[in-house]
Amino acid sequence: MASRRLALNLAQGLRGRSGGLSVPVRRGLATPHSPALKTQTTTLKNGLTVASQYSPYAQTSTVGMWIDAGSRAETDETNGTAHFLEHLAFKGTSKRTQQQLELEIENMGAHLNAYTSRENTVYFARALNEDVPQCVDILQDILQNSKLEESAIERERDVILRESEEVEKQLEEVVFDHLHATAYQQQPLGRTILGPRENIRDITRTELTNYIKNNYTADRMVLVGAGGVPHEQLVEMADKYFAGLPSKSPESAAYLLSKKKADFIGSDVRIRDDTIPTANIAIAVEGVSWNDPDYFTALVTQAIVGNYDKALGNAPHQGSKLSGIVHKNDLATSYMSFSTSYSDTGLWGIYMVTDNLANVDDLVHFSLREWTRLCGSVTPAEVERAKAQLKASILLSLDGTSAVAEDIGRQIVNTGRRMSPGEIERVIDAITEKDVMEFANKKIWDQDIAISAVGSIEGLFDYARIRADMSRNF
C-alpha cells in the first residue's frame, strides 16, 4: 500500500493541470538504496519486551501482544482454558462493553483478532498509524481488564463446542492432533488446543482468571509493532499501559511441567473408519526446536521431500523425486512434508492422503525409502532447488505489516531474538548436501516414529513393519 500511495503522489507532483508532464523529466544518477529495515527491541523495568520494525513510508501498522503461553501451559483439568480466554477477550472489559469495543474498532476501520497455539497466545490489531495508540489502549484493556462475565462464559461455551464439532470434521486437524497425542503421550504438548469437550463444558471463571494470573506476566510477553509506528512511540505506550504487569510468573506445578522437556515416544494411533473414502496418515520422527542449530537444515531437508497435489496442473513436475514416484504410480491424492518446531522439540515428517486404498503400503514404503535415501545420496541440484523454494517461501510470507509482526513476535517469544530476512538467507545459502545427509543420519536413520492414521486404513502395515523401513540400505 505504501509504495502504491508513494507512486500516486509522485505522479500527481509531476503532472500539470492538463494531465501531461509539466516539465521535462531527466533521469539522474543512481542513489544509494536505503538501509535495510531493522528490528529494535527494548525491555521495560518489569521485564516486558517491546519489539518493532519501523517502516517510514508505511501508512498502516500492526500492533499486538505475543504471549509465551498456550495449551502447553495448562493442566489436564484446565486444558482448553487458553483458547476459551481468546474467545472471551472481546466480550467486554471494565472500561468498555462488548458493543463499545466493537464500535470503537469499527469506527477506526481497524481489525482486531487473536489466536491460540500449543505454546503461544496472540492478540493483535491492524489500523492506520494515527490509530495505533487507541489500538494499544484496547489491547491492554482486554488483556488486563476483561470482565469474564458468567453470561458471556456460557454463551462462548456453546460457540466453542460448535467450533470443536467443526474441527472434528477436518481430517487433517484430527490426524495432527492425534499425532501430537501419541508422540507426546501424557505430556502437556500432547494435549489439543481446544481441549476435550467435557473440559469446555466445565471450565469456570476461576480457572480463567487463574490462567491470566499465572501466565500473562511481563517476562513472558512481547509487545510487537510493524509498519509506520516508531519504536520510541511504541515503548512510551508500553510504559504507559503495561508498566503494572506482574514481572514474573509464579512457579506453579503447571508452569514447571510446561517448561519440562517433552519426550518423544515412538508409537502409533489408528482410527479406522471405512465410511471415510480416503486413508489419512501422518508419520513423524522427532524434529528440532526453534533454537536448534539444525533448524534451517530440517526445513531444507523437508523441502527436498517436497509436497504433492494430484489436482494441480503441474502435478507431474513438482520437482521432488518422491512426487515423481507418487504421480507415476497414482499412490496418493496429496502429500505434505512438514517440520514443526516447539521450544524444546519438534516433529519432522509427512502427511499423506490417498484414495488408492489397495496400495497404502506402497505409499508408506516409498515415502520412507525417500527418507532413508537422504541419509546417503543427496544431489547438489536438489539441495539448491530446496533452498531456493525455502527462501522464496520465507520472503513471500513477510508481505504486509501483520506478517512482519507475526515473524517478530514468534521469533522473539520462542528464541529471544529476531533473525533478519538477510541473515536467514545467508544461513540457508550456507547449507550443503553434506549438512542435509548429516541431519538425516542423526534424525531419520533408524529412529523411532510416531504414526497417526484416520479413515480407510486397513491396508496400513503394523507399526513394527513400518518402523523396520527406517533403516533400509538402498
From TrEMBL:
InterPro entries found in the cross-reference section: Metalloenz_LuxS/M16, MPP/UQCRC_Complex, Pept_M16_N, Pept_M16_Zn_BS, Peptidase_M16_C
First-listed, main subcellular location of the protein, grouped into a coarse class: mitochondrion
UniProt keywords, alphabetically: Hydrolase, Metal-binding, Metalloprotease, Mitochondrion, Protease, Zinc
Signal peptide: none
Reactions performed catalytically: Release of N-terminal transit peptides from precursor proteins imported into the mitochondrion, typically with Arg in position P2
PANTHER family, A to Z: GH01077P, METALLOPROTEASE
UniProt protein name: mitochondrial processing peptidase
Organism, scientific name: Podospora pseudocomata
Organism ancestry: Eukaryota, Fungi, Dikarya, Ascomycota, Pezizomycotina
Gene transcribed to yield this protein: MAS1
